[in-house]
Amino acid sequence: MAKRVDERGAPVPPEDGARDPVVTVRSLTKRFGELVAVDDLTFSLHSGTVTGFLGPNGAGKTTTLRLLLGLAEPSTGDALVFGRRYRELNDPARRVGAVLESSDFHPGRSGRHHLRALALAAEIPPARVEEVLALVELEAAAGRRVRTYSLGMRQRLSLAGALLGDPELLVLDEPANGLDPAGVHWLRRFLRLFAEQGRTVLVSSHMLAEAALTVDDVVIIDRGRWVAAGRLDELTEHGRTLEDVFLELTGAVS
Amino acid sequence: MKALLRAELLKQGSTRTGLGLFAAMLGLVLLAVLLHSLLPAEDLARRNSQLVVLGRGEFLGTLFAALLGALSITSEIRHGTIRPTFLFTPRRGRVVAAKVSVSILIGAGFGLVAGAVAAAVGTAALRTRGIDVRLDGGDDALLVLGAGAAGALWAAIGVGVGALVRHQVPTMIGICAWLLFVEGLLAGDLVGLGEVGRYLPGAAAAAISGQEPGTLLAPAAGLVLLALYAAVAALAGWFATSRRDVV
Prior knowledge:
The structure holds two protein chains of two kinds. Chain A is α/β, with parallel strands linked by helices. Chain A is about 35% helix and about 25% strand. Chain A has nine helices and nine strands. Chain A has helices at about 60-70, 90-95, 110-120, 125-135, 150-165, 180-195, 210-215, 230-235, 240-254, and strands spanning about 25-30, 35-45, 50-55, 75-80, 95-100, 170-175, 200-205, 215-220, 225-230. Chain A has a six-stranded mixed beta sheet with strand order 5-6-7-3-8-9, sandwiched between helices. The longest helix of chain A has 16 residues, at about 180-195. Chain B is mostly helical. Chain B has one domain (about 1-245). Chain B is about 80% helix and about 0% strand. Chain B has helices spanning about 1-15, 15-35, 40-45, 45-80, 80-90, 90-130, 135-165, 170-185, 200-210, 220-245. Chain B is elongated, with a radius of gyration of 18 Å. The chains are: A alpha/beta, B mainly alpha.
């Protein structure tokens, strides 16, 4: 199927509007008692882009992602993937791959067994486990217990889990945390290639300078509230850095 | 559902936790049976005392099956694997159902092995001391099969309690404390629940294998009652896991 692209070579959604945005967040609010972690947040993502979901620590990024992935229920509003609540997707692992914490392993289980258990649950063939292990360059360590893995190896194993179902959307929470420069470079290239196949990446980060190197679009939040969204190159024109933009905008809303 | 059962079986088989629990259970069964068989010969001559000695298998099989069931969910919460698990199976109730099923299977195995080892070793120990063993093949079969049933049902209770409490250490301590002390205290002279004590879940488990006849319920009644406890615990765990946000 030919993909429509704009003058920058980025895919654009069909005009008829028949296709749902990959991610739709509408008036999303999550309260924990008195604390409003996410406050009336609205944004959407279309396919073929890498979107940076940016904000300081405690801005509500992780909470938003948990709501989007069906791990928590919104207090009000909607968080939809492919037009549906995550829990109502028919084959979620084949549509969405996600990493919320890159340390979500049993230390006494091998990387391969970790992936096989997930694959079994989603009825993904075992050959795919070997494919994703090769993709993240973990074949040699796959038989070892995760306890023996370095931080970078754990990050890649998490990513392998997210890729098991060959998803259309990848959601990663702070994936560059703890990676060495080579690891960050590898991840950046990987996400670019993923989006160039017409797929979509939503990647949260509090590291604005790093994010600016990877993403096409940004959604910026602060204290649970929407601050700005749009194309990175438009937000940062006139030689401003993402950091300048962020400080200016968050200063304005306080 | 078959896919989820296979996934849960692989999770159980791919760490050393299950094997470690099994080995600890076997060691304690041997120790408990051998220590009990050192009681004065005149005490051990009574049929009820012999049931107590051989019943250590049911007791420890039940305890370790419950811990295994509880670990199947609290370990996932502790290590965070619960997040990928629920991302792959967002209908969380189905994950709990799979854990209950697999834990029942392994718990039954724990109970059967513990019951059989206790019966074999206990009988041999009594004979070695020259004590007339007053239990027949029917008693032994009930001890072993009853321990299997008690292990299976308490494993389901373990999953339910683990799903409700979620934190691993309080869950494990709670289960151990309940089976080792709390029930005994409640049923004992101090609190004096007396008659009611036999309806508690640990006592119901012991009743299934025919222990303390006359004091505890009949085996069939114990089985029905413990199955009710297991169903309530599993349903509560299923409901809480489906409803609450994932930590």
